[in-house]
Amino acid sequence: MYFIALATDYDGTLAHDGIVSRKTLAALERFKKSGRKLVLVTGRELPDLKRVFPEIGLFDKVVAENGALIYTPASEEERVISPSPDPKFVARLKKQGVKPLSVGRSIVATWEPHQATVLEIIKKMGLELEIIFNKGAVMILPSGINKATGLAAALQDLRLSPHNVVGIGDAENDHAFLKACGCSVAVDNAIAAVKTTANLVTRGARGKGVEELVDRLIKRDHDILPRRHDGIALGAAGGDDIYLSPKDTVLIAGSSGIGKSTLATALTERFVEGGFQFCIFDPEGDYDGLEGAVRLGDGSSAPTKAQVLDLIEKADSNVVINGLALRVNERPDFFADLLPGLGSFRRRTARPHWLVIDEAHHLLPKRRDDTRAVLSLELPGTVLITVHPEAISTDALRLVTAIIALGPKAKDVIKVFCSETDIDPPKDMASPKGERVLFWRPRKRKKIAKVKVIEPRQSLKRHSRKYAEGQLDEAGSFYFHGPDDAMNLRAHNLMIFAQIAEGIDDKTWEFHLRAGDYSKWFRNQIRDKDLARETAEAENDKKLSAEESRKRVLDAVRRRYTAPATAPED
């Protein structure tokens, strides 16, 4: 499910002449049985609503008084989120003959044509109040209080995102909350302005329109809107914008160092802009310092399942799960332990909207026998990033709906994917040129597009924590052995490298320096060309003493990797 809740107006939408039909009530019950939530959003005062609608207990939350009052039927708790009416204001209205006049916990309501009198009194008293219209009704509320603010408060209680809510209404005062929903719907009897701005208009009026909407949502809510409506812009191809949808499972693949993490970073920026919650599984420490996200774990301590699930409960919290402290063979078990709980949470709330799984071949490896059990039937809103698509579980690959292939071997990525999933590869593939990538939707079998992808605004220190604090394997480590092989000191990360370098004798230091071993390691294993270049300059400067060259190299390392995260980059 993507749309977890239905937020509906009452009069003119759910109800006809104040009454909800049996068929409409049955549709609401079907909706609840599907595991979804119901929110009633109305201008009515609560006592009046309870009188005309005894089935109010069907709803998980009620937003009454046009957004001023939140009511929970299950507990009968009432929460007013705006000030009470000023008694002097009410007295002035009565004195000026404004009637009928209704006074609620926060709302003051009357009918046209009294709006002119109301506005005049507001101005004379200097009150910060707003007038909201509803098909002839005139509602007066504190400034900034409307159905949208009330719905936001109700969704916060339910721990739901407005992206996962369908709103349906008919009148002027419904504009605000419909606009705040992930999908806005107007019933057929709605005023023209509401129909114009809604994403969908039902064929049926009032309750029949609600019944129609419920049936569509239960049948296949993912298909109710086009992909680009809630989509994330990937880039452009041939003048057309390319979007990724929260219902997509995306594979980003290409050779090492080709820009996969950079693209993922750009996508997270779009997630933040759109108000989408995301969670990144970051085995290598690529996303340290990512804007708009909280990091769990570091090079010395692994995050726990409880920490992750607790943090994502908050709809405005984005999470980076740093797995540097986990050994490569521990990562699949950690992920397998976490994914069921995360999947259960997503089924209840549709959050996080996006999961980004970097080094996916580590977390969903083909060699695991229980991957099928770990995976849910779908992985919507998931981005799998890898250098080795052939090493990812075939069950996971078969869920992919969009492929982004980068670099000179982009064609090979698509060929490997097709081979692993038994899909015929597309014809006339050509490698992308310049900054473009190959984009293909294997299920739709459309022609491959060459996309100019978006660029991130922020620059991450790629793999900085992995190389600074993590544990490189034996082949990737640096070994100080000296001119006579008298020692064999292993540096499995840059922090250990710096510690050993400071303690070894000058003869050993200069042996590796003059052989160019340091720049070679930085270039080939750390994959930092700038650090390698700066180190090579020290290696080639014969005028430098051992102490001077050591200081220059270690200063370059610390400046890039082991300095605090707030330190400026070169």
Features of the shown structure:
570 residues; alpha/beta; Rossmann fold; Hypothetical Protein Ta0175, Chain: A, domain 2; 4 domains; eleven-stranded mixed beta sheet; 25 strands; elongated; disordered C terminus; magnesium ion binding; HerA_central; phosphatase activity; P-loop_NTPase
What does this protein structure show overall?
This protein is an alpha/beta fold and 570 residues long. The protein has four domains: 1-78 and 145-225, Rossmann fold (3-Layer(aba) Sandwich); 83-144, Hypothetical Protein Ta0175, Chain: A, domain 2, CATH 3.90.1070; 232-453, P-loop containing nucleotide triphosphate hydrolases (Rossmann fold), CATH 3.40.50.300; 472-562, no CATH class. Helices cover 36% and strands 19% of the residues. The strands form four sheets. Strands 14-13-23-22-21-15-20-19-16-18-17 form an eleven-stranded mixed sheet. β17, α10 (305-312) and β18 form a beta-alpha-beta unit. It is elongated. It starts with a strand and ends in an 8-residue tail after the last helix.
